[in-house]
Specification:
The two termini are about 30 Å apart. A five-stranded antiparallel beta sheet has the order 1-2-3-6-7. The protein has five helices and seven strands; from the N terminus they run H-H-E-E-E-E-E-E-H-E-H-H. It is α+β, with helices and mostly antiparallel strands.
Length: about 160
């Protein structure tokens, strides 16, 4: 992912109001991010537990979306994150919704999906069990690519024009 400044991060949010952009809190480790290692950037707002952000690379540059986490926790014993496809304990996966960009969002349309509650999908797919003697690393690489593709597809759903 290309390195972004604070101003570029704020400007990338396509489903945010001017106030949302202004109050967005960057990740605590923002100045230490290894941009070359990131497929996308996702974090929970340190000032507001219910707000989160995802930024992906798009053909026109970085595209960010503001997410809202559902209140409460799941009673399920386990749950699957729809981005990284990692099975987690039920309380570590949350429903996140994003207001759609443009007129659809102004009309109240939203898109939602289940995501790791800490938005650690980028790291979760890189944590792999040790390889068996005849196993190849390609399976982990496919998980990384799949997570990036599903994250970009979710962002695309947010920015898609209504039919």
């Amino acid at each position: 992912m290309q390195a972004l400044t604070e101003e570029e991060v704020r400007a990338s949010f396509v489903n945010a109001s001017a106030d949302d952009r202004r109050i967005a809190a960057l990740p605590i480790d923002f100045i230490l991010l290894d941009w070359d290692h990131l497929d996308f950037l996702a974090w929970r707002d340190p000032d507001s537990r219910g707000r989160a952000y995802v930024i992906t690379q798009h053909e026109d540059g970085p595209v960010g979306i503001v997410l809202r986490a559902a209140e409460g926790s799941s009673r399920a014993r386990s749950a699957l994150c729809n981005l990284c496809h990692t099975m987690q304990p039920g309380n570590q996966v949350s429903l996140f919704s994003a207001r759609k960009a443009g007129r659809a969002g102004e009309a109240g349309d939203t898109v939602g999906t289940y995501i790791c509650a800490d938005l650690g999908c980028h790291d979760n797919v890189r944590i792999a069990p040790p390889l068996a003697p005849s196993e190849v690393r390609a399976s982990v690489d496919r998980r990384i690519d799949g997570t990036r593709d599903r994250t970009e597809a979710f962002v695309a759903r947010v920015i898609a024009e209504a039919p």
